[in-house]
Write a structure and sequence with these properties.
The protein has 13 helices and six strands. With 272 residues, it is mainly alpha-helical. The structure holds calcium ion (4 copies). One calcium ion (CA) binds next to strand 3. One of its GO terms (biological process) is regulation of long-term synaptic potentiation.
């Protein structure tokens, strides 16, 4: 079985995946995984009589065993690819961070950095720049041909609406951005004391540089999370629009940053 799996590369994996994920949801129902593995072994050149239930069971245990406890759970493409692809093909492993990305500010810093033409989208070319830097950071060399191939595979995996560019939510998936920080807070927070305490926590979370003001990607991160409280996924252009409106409304001293008291005022909170 292992020798068959040696023939698995990113492009082939994706092809097999798409056969099962026809609606392009990025996930497959856990209970369909046996069929998935059978199909995979077949595609990798194994004869039908060689594909036994036992082999399939072992694959399931090896690659998706955590799901066995909950058969209703879906298997995500990036999780399975990270488990299955051989190391040299598995550029997706590079996205696995020791600590998950849990702050939209860091996310927006990356986004602004690679959306080099500020179009509000990450194009295939911009994605390639991102991958190049990632390989550099991990001190891995990669041929131009592999760069093209990985970029293309990533686009196929994450460009949900097939318009040839990645949106904010596609990129958030690639970087495994954790859930919205603002969801932690109840909007019906009762007393003024509670609201002030929440405000302090919120401000501290977004003021990553600890300057007492939100600037650059700190504003972006805050705007992204705020907007996504009311709309599940926003586009880069919507973000820019709302950012502009927020700055116009909140940045009272017009220094291009949002000081703590400015944000408090904006949120209808009077700090003593
Ligand atoms: Ca762009
Ligand atoms: Ca797209
Ligand atoms: Ca700051
Ligand atoms: Ca200001």
């Amino acid at each position: 079985m292992d020798s068959a799996l040696d023939r698995l590369d990113a492009a082939r994996f994706l092809q097999i995946w798409q056969h099962f994920d026809k609606d392009d949801k990025g996930c497959i129902e856990g209970k369909k995984m046996d069929d998935f593995f059978k199909h995979m072994l077949h595609k990798l050149g194994m004869k039908t009589e060689e594909i036994t239930e036992d082999k399939v069971r072992r694959m399931r245990e090896r690659f998706v065993s955590p799901y066995d406890s909950d058969p209703d759970r879906n298997v995500q493409i990036e999780e399975l690819a990270a488990m299955m692809l051989p190391v040299e093909e598995n550029f997706l492993l590079l996205f696995r961070r020791e600590t998950p990305l849990d702050n939209s500010v860091e996310f927006m810093r990356i986004w602004r950095n690679y959306d080099t033409d500020s179009s509000g989208y990450i194009s295939a070319n911009e994605l390639k720049g991102f991958l190049q830097d990632l390989f550099l950071q991990h001190r891995k060399s990669i041929t131009p041909q592999k760069q093209e191939e990985y970029t293309e595979t990533m686009m196929k995996m994450f460009d949900k609406n097939r318009d040839g560019r990645l949106d904010l939510n596609d990129m958030a998936r690639i970087l495994a951005l954790n859930e919205n920080f603002l969801l932690k807070f109840k909007t019906d927070a009762c007393s003024l004391e509670d609201r002030k305490r929440d405000f302090e926590k919120i401000f501290a979370h977004y003021d990553v540089s600890k300057t007492g003001a939100l600037e650059g990607p700190e504003v972006d991160g805050f705007v992204k999370d705020m907007m996504e409280l009311v709309k599940p996924s926003i586009s880069g252009m919507e973000l820019d629009k709302f950012r502009k409106a927020l700055m116009g409304h909140c940045d009272i001293n017009r220094d291009g940053k949002i000081q703590k008291n400015e944000l408090a005022l904006c949120l209808g909170l009077k700090l003593s």
